[in-house]
Design a protein that fits this description.
Layout: E1 5-16, E2 19-31, E3 36-40, H1 47-55, E4 62-73, E5 77-80, H2 86-93, E6 98-101, H3 105-108, H4 115-127, H5 131-144, H6 161-173, E7 179-183, H7 191-208, E8 211-215, H8 219-225, E9 228-233, E10 236-242, H9 243-248, H10 253-260, E11 309-312, E12 315-318
Parallel strand pairs: 3-8, 3-9, 6-7, 7-8
Antiparallel strand pairs: 1-2, 1-4, 4-5, 9-10, 10-12, 11-12
Helix pairs in contact: 4-5, 5-6
Amino acid sequence: MPPLLELRNVKMYYGTSRGTVKAVDGISFRLNKGEAMALVGESGSGKSSLAFTIIRLLPRNVAEAGGEILFYDEELGVVDLAKMNEDEIRRKIRWKKISMVFQASMNALNPILRVQDQMIEPLVLHLGLSREEAVKIAEEALRSVGLAKDVLMRYPFELSGGMKQRVVIAMAIMMRPRLVILDEPTSALDVITQANIMNLLKELKAKFDLSYILITHDIALASEIADKIGVMYAGRLVEVAPADVFFRKPKHPYSQKLLAAMPTLREEKSIEYIPGDVPSLITPPPGCRFHPRCPYAIKGKCEKEEPQTKQIDGSEVACWLY
């Protein structure tokens, strides 16, 4: 069986008045059925842009988009999402096969529409269901995330942050997609609510056999649910590794620095930081894009030549050290 999702040299550049922003620049990875992959990295590394590229919610100022986004489905076979037009994506893929939980649920819901109207809209438009049938499915979706059906008649401002996040998750799983992209699903929530949401996501994954792409800054959060970790830096994927391998022995210097900056409960260690800033994606550094901040940069090599991805002890890493 082919992987559920395979990206091959995927690119997506924004056009701006200052120049072309290389937000997603040659990303390749595989995601198998039932897997959860976490994408981690600093703000501005291209994680959310990659998510929008996969689900084909591209902004109007796209300057260039390319590569292959291969998606496998028993009904459709293997399709290249990058070659499908907007009408095909809307009718066959978006929300039905691939859905997304957007960052900041407070902004993802329309404040002047009841929850019911927002939940049933894709069911009526995409599946052609009657309003009564759509309401029943919406009620069941709310029950699956631990909310009562009377939430349907409320406005978003009447709900707590955790309740709004559950509504957004219910909307994402309502049409039983195979892949759910989660963009910072616990941002702006308190610690207890974060834990409840993560437990809910794990329950839904097991119940509906879902695959996840989790975008997060919180590496500890990623360890809760991820089967594999992808580390993005300046528009590129510098390391992909099974979660147990990544947290035990990260390979790329950037991955090592990210873990070193994370406090732990079970051991004493000095917290490190990464000097410098994320480079501009309009004029990224030549060679390895991390070399200006890397303590192990090889002079005459890293600043001139782009490293190729290699298989090292179960990890895929792009670094001249290997």
